[in-house]
Amino acid sequence: MDKLKAVDRSVRAHEAAHKAAGGPYAGSETFTFTTGPDGQHYATAGEVAIDIGSVQGDPQATIAKLETVRRAALAPADPSGQDRAVAAQAEAGIVAAQGEAAKQKTQPKDGQGDAPSGGGLTAEGDAASTGIQGGGAGGVTSRQGAAAYRKTQGAVDAGIVQAAQAAAAQPLALFA
């Protein structure tokens, strides 16, 4: 009986830590009960549902939300394997959202242009104005640099989209 009571206290404290740290993103605690020899029900397992979906169109809000989720997953003194998995999902979502935020910062507001302003490379202009040696053997023109930037940015964008889609595919996780 003493062991069941200790497990009950531990399980309830563990799930309460998730719930408290998860704030508005955490659902209700649910428990699995075992009936003791005294006829009482003791919590022997539990979980808290938590929303790990992104905030559509707002990477900064997504980052803040997923940081809360990560803290909630690791809130108990003894996080389970599932807790660590949820924290890892949140971390992946944070990285994807940070990439999306960076992408939004580098895109011109008017949708025109190929490279971020003030970055040292422009799609047009001479090599001297960009600080790059142009033309000769081994030299890189500003147009070549901008093309390389676009190619690299496309690969980064594809990775961000893939990570965000993977995170969005599982908008609800459970802490065990």
Automatic annotation (TrEMBL):
Supply the InterPro entries for this chain: SprA-related (IPR021973)
Q: Name one Pfam family in it.
A: SprA-related
Region described as Disordered = 1-40, 98-148
Q: Where is the composition biased (Basic and acidic residues)?
A: 1-18
Look up the domain of life of the source: Bacteria
Q: What is this protein called?
A: SprA family protein
Species annotation: Nitrospirillum amazonense
